[in-house]
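Notes to self after the Tuesday call (sharing in case useful).
The group wants a holo model before anyone commits to mutagenesis around the pocket. I volunteered. Ligand is flavin mononucleotide. Logging inputs and output together so the record is complete.
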Amino acid sequence: MDLMTALRQRRSIRRYQERPIPEETLKTLLDAAKTAPSAGNLRSRKFLVVTNPQIMKALGLAAYSQPQFSKAAALVVICADVPRSSARYGDRGSLFAIQDADAACMCLLLAAHALGLGACWNGAFDDALVRDLLSLEKGVLPVAIISLGWPDQQPADPGGSQEEAVSWIT
Ligand SMILES: Cc1cc2nc3c(=O)[nH]c(=O)nc-3n(C[C@H](O)[C@H](O)[C@H](O)COP(=O)(O)O)c2cc1C
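Result:
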């Protein structure tokens, strides 16, 4: 699949078949996520791949029981490693670490789509609960929980891209 096609076709998938994702496929997704750029190549981010049913259930509750959590085959929690980035960039470090994590999220979503998987970026969750469940170190900020599974829906383009603010300063 060429990249422009993947960009145009990707959708947030929130309904999944009850079918596991092979570990090798998950590893491929993580490899894709790690291709993302990062400030100063510091890679100020962390990935937690969760397939443990109890932890997945608890993360679903922490994400306000959003339905896409109930049948996801795996969750990938992408965190910003703020201390790592701040050690070099000071106050700018927290922004850079979040951007490092965001860039990785997008690469993972596109790779999932290219492999025929469905994925949804979930940012609505109780931060403290997620940090606690995953025993995240101080300063490591969970940015997104990506729910993954084999798609059981084909959502239409939700639209809106035509209205996004673009200014040309020539
Ligand atoms: C920062 C961020 C947070 C998001 N959080 C959620 C979420 O908690 N739950 C959800 O269902 N979708 C979430 N989404 C997905 C958006 O709803 C989705 O990208 C948007 O509606 C456009 O649809 P598309 O991804 O199919 O193009 C989030 C997306 C982003 C970028």
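Two things stood out.
The CA atoms of residues 12 and 129 lie 24 Å apart.
Residues 92-114 form the longest helix (23 residues).
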